[in-house]
Amino acid sequence: MGRPRKYPLPESTAPAHALAAPEPDDDEEESPDELEPEHLVALALDNPRMRLTPPMVAALNQAWKDNVRADDDEGKAHARRIAGRLKRASHAELHPGCQKVTITVPTLKRRNGGVWYVKINERAYVGECTVWECEARTILELAHRYQLVEEERMEDSRAVHPTFDLDTGTVVAERARAIQRA
Q1: What angle do CA 67, 73, 75 make, to 5 degrees?
Q2: Do residues 102 and 127 touch, judged by C-beta distance below 8 A?
Q3: Residue 82 CB: number of other CB atoms within 10 A?
Q4: Which pTM value belongs to this model?
Q5: What is the mean pLDDT of each run of 10 residues along the chain (182 residues)?
Q6: How many domains does the chain have?
Q7: Residue 48 domain flag
Q8: Taking the CA atoms of the chain, what radius of gyration do you get in angstroms?
Q9: 138 is in which domain, residue-wise?
């Protein structure tokens, strides 16, 4: 005799006596995606082996946002359960239709001769990489934003985008020049 199962077996492997003919309902059954968000969250948390659908993922994300800053222990525990369920979900469940793509990530050079690599969660992306489409968009956006910032960084023509000192309301460059002259 072992310990009881944490999760029930799928219906196909249930014992023969449990496979009695279901009673016909006059009411139409709703598909899981047509349920209210609270029911979708409960369904996803109660059946951890069930494949998540996009409405379930959206409902779980919203429920997590609602409960993550809860003051009570029950709300915090619910947020942890939701986060755990989303962490165990596959990439196909979280991003349906997302494919693997191969991209060439440029090495980003600084004006002082240094090199900067695109990093996501401490993983550096350099050269040819095979990643998910969503990850590729993030990598290429980071590279693009880096190039925009680097172009503006060492320019003398800061009059286009001046930096203001919020305390005094003056342009920081003018204040710095005044301090250097003094």
Answers
A1: 20
A2: no
A3: 23
A4: 0.57
A5: 73 53 51 78 89 91 90 90 93 91 89 83 92 93 88 63 58 74 78
A6: 2
A7: yes
A8: 27
A9: 100-153
